[in-house]
Amino acid sequence: MKVYLESFGCSASQASAEIMKASIRKLGHELLSPENAGQAEVYICNSCTVKYTTEQKILYKIRSMGEKGVQVIVSGCMPEVQLEDILHANPEAHILGVNAVSRLGDLLFTIEQRKKTGIPGGERLEIRTSEPQGFLNVPRERSNPNIHICQISQGCNFACSYCIVKHARGKLLSFPPEEILEDIRSAVADGCREIWLTSQDDSQYGMDTGVKLPELLRAISEIPGDFKVRVGMMNPFSVLPILDDLVDAFDSDKIFKLLHLPIQSASHSVLKKMNRLHKMDSVNEIITKFRARFEDLSLFTDIIVGFCDETDEDFEETIEWVKKYRPEKINISRYSPRPHTKAFSFRNLDSRISVKRSHQLHKVCEQIKIESKNEMIGWKGRVFVSKYTEIGDVLTRTDSYRPVVISGSDLRPGQYDEVEITGAKPGYFLGKITG
Fold it and tell me: Which EC class is the enzyme in (predicted)?
C-alpha cells in the first residue's frame, strides 16, 4: 500500500515517527514523500495536542483525508485525550495508542487484508497498550542519519494546571538503563554522532526506579565512540533535588553544555496558578551553578504568555528575568486552554493581550539574540561536526551546542576541529577552520 505519515509535536513524537516509518518499510509498503501525499491509500497522523492551533490542523487533515476515501490512522497524544473529537472529524479513523508504536504493523496488516478481499471499510480498528512497547532497540528511519533520538521515559509525575500531555502519557515510567545504553551503542555503531535524550521531563528520569539521570549520563559517557549527547528539557522542580550531582555528570566531554530549563513565567503568582512547583530563586540557583562550572553554557527556556489572570506586573517580572539571565533561545507560547486540564475552567485573558505580550517578548528576545551573536564573532575554539546541511556544508556545534556552519570543508560527522566564528545569521554562525 502507499502510506503517507505526517508527524506533529516534540522530539519524542519525532522518535515514534521514525520507528513507525521503519515498520512501514519493513512490511513492504511504499512510504510517500509530502509531495506525493495525494497518492496515499493510508494516512498516518502522529498527533500532538499541546496547542489548539495544532489540534485544529490535525482534525482538518484527518477529516479531509477520510472524505477522499483514504484509510486514516491516528497515533500520538490526541487519541488518549480527544478521541471524541477525532471520531467526530472522521468516524472511521483507526487508533494507535501512544504506548503502542510497535503495533502499527497489526493495523496495516488488517487494512491491507480488507483491501485484498474487497472489503475496504469494516469496523474501525483500535490498538492500545497499558505500558510503552517498542521505543528502544528497534529499527528506525531517522530524519537525519547522524542524529539518534533516544526516549528515556514516558509520562510525568507532576501536574501543571495547563498541561494536557500528563493526561495523554500518564505517570512516569523510566525505561531500564541497560536498554537505553544498548540503544545508544547501536545508534553509534550505525554511524549516529549526535544523541538526543528526550522525554516529557529528562530530570525526572529514575524517580520511579532509583537510577537517576546523573548516573545514566555517566554511564552514557563511558560508551566508546565519537559522539555527543544533547540532554533535553528539564523542569526546575525536578532538577533541584539532583542539582549538584547533575552538574558533575554534565562535566563530560561527550555532553553538550546546554541547559534547557523551562520557567514558563517569572511571576510567583502565575507559577502558583500554573501549579509549577518551583520558585524563581531555585531557578536562579540552578542557572548560577551551571554557569559557574561551564562558563560557555547555553541556556534555553520556555515561556507561556497570557496565562489566566496574568497581570501587566506579572508579565514585567518575566521580561526583567529574561533581560537579566539572557537565554540563548526562548520558546514562546501564547496560552492555549486545553481540555481535561485544571486551567481549562479558569478565566482567560483577552487574546489581544496575549498577542501584544508575545510580540513584546519576541522583541526583547531578538535584541538579546543579536547582541549575544555579535559578541561571539571572533570566538575561536573547538567544534564537533554534527551533520551535513542541505546544500553540502557542514553543521558543527560548539561544546555549548551553538551551531557553526563551515563551507568548503571535508569534515565528517563525529570529527572535532578548531574554528573561528566569522559571522552570524539569524539561526546559526558562520565559521572557518583554523586547526
Answer: transferase
